[in-house]
Amino acid sequence: MLGDLTLWFDPEKSTRVGTTPDYRFSLANERTFLAWIRTALALLAGGLACAQFLPPLPIEHLREIIAILLLTLGGLLALRAVDHWARTERAMRLGTDLPRSRFPAVLAIVVAVGAVALVAAVLVQVF
Known about the structure:
By secondary structure, this protein is mostly helical. The protein contains five helices and no strands. The chain has helices spanning 2-9, 11-14, 23-53, 62-94, 103-126. The N and C termini lie far apart (50 Å).
């Protein structure tokens, strides 16, 4: 684990491990990382928007809870993105299987549950 953390800040260290993969794969790995970072930024922007612009909801502090959850999820996603990028780059250099992750499924479930909760909050406010 700690070895992977050093790859976050010292990418030159990864060039001393294994063999150089096809550059197209490294660039694809970087594009995937950037897609995850865009998603993290969207969650952060959504959290900030909820905190600043969402009117008070019928459940006390629900607006703040939603904002904190979105901001936390965005931060965790950014950290997960860099970790996955470093582990994938290392696996490609060593010729091993790419790292598997349940994180996309967990993220999708959390977002879906959040959407259901927001629909419920809107319905409570309407009726």
